[in-house]
Every structure is written in structure tokens, then in C-alpha cells.
Amino acid sequence: MMEPSAPFTFALLALCLAATASCGPEPEANAPDPVALAPYTAADSALFDDTFSPDFFGLERPTPVGEDRRLTARARSAALVLAGRVSTVTRDRRDALESYVLVLTPTGVVRGESSAGPITLEVDASSPSFPWIRSTETDLVGRGVILFAKRYNDHGARVLHWHAEADTPEIRRAVESAMLVSEVGS
Predict the structure, then answer these.
(1) N or C: which terminus of the chain has fewer CB atoms within 10 Å of its end residue's CB?
(2) Mean pLDDT calculated for residue range 97-102
């Protein structure tokens, strides 16, 4: 049998590493079976809509923070509330479908458990956040974010749905207040 050449071996190794990196982390070994998770309903999609709030992009919020019932509901019902920073923004094209992949590096967990590693969020062209990301792209790198996330049984698959807000003192106070009320009321 013929031994592979060094350039061939290097190319194969690089291809394997690239494939591993683009597929994201391995599934969690102790993650719940999708059947054990709640279904992703229309009410859930209003809270965990896989989008970024307009103020994350420097735009005006549609509802002031103190009056935003969805922000309060997200803070109370999210399984994971995480503070982080955008570390990369990458445009991705698959089969002529364009999307953006944003990688968040956690800076602190407010509620829930998170692996020490980064979290990858994909925003496709159908998302309301897509044009904002397209217009700002790499300017988002380093920007602070508060991520609200929860796992669902989405048509038989275990899917993490999320919503992201700008990491501002006003948002943090509102989140902490909502979570405190939630804990006291439990």
C-alpha cells in the first residue's frame, strides 16, 4: 500500500479541521431528548424569535425598556440568560441561501448553565435582523449582548431558540428585576 504524501496528509488534515469547525460543538451527552422538551409554539416564538433587538444595532427600541413586557417575560422564562460579546461575524452561503453566523463569547451567566465555550447564532435571510447585520457586519465585533435562550422540541429536533438584546445598564437592571420578581414569586 502506498503511503500518502506530506502535502496530501496536510490537506486532508486541514479539510477535517475545517469540517469540524464549521459543524459547531458536539451534541451534549446529557442533553434532554427532544420529546422531553416543550414544543416550540407561536407564543414561544414571540419571546424566543432568533433575532436581535433593534437597539443592539443602535436603533430605537420599539418599546421603552421599562414598559417592555416581552423583555420581562424572556428574563423570567429563559433557561439561559447570558452576557457576552460578539467575537466574529461571518457571511455564509449555502445553496444560494445567505445567512450570517455570529459567535458570542460568554462574559458571564446570569441564569442557567453554559459551557465555557462560545455560542454560535445563525441568522438567515428571512430574519428581521438580517438586513441590520448585513449593514453593520464586522462593526458588531466586540459589541456586548444579553442572550435569552431556551431549548425546545421543534418538529422533533432539539433546537435552541433565542433572542438577543444590547448589553446596557438599563437592560441589565430590567432583567435582574424581572428575574428577582420571578424567584420571589416561585
Answers:
(1) N
(2) 94
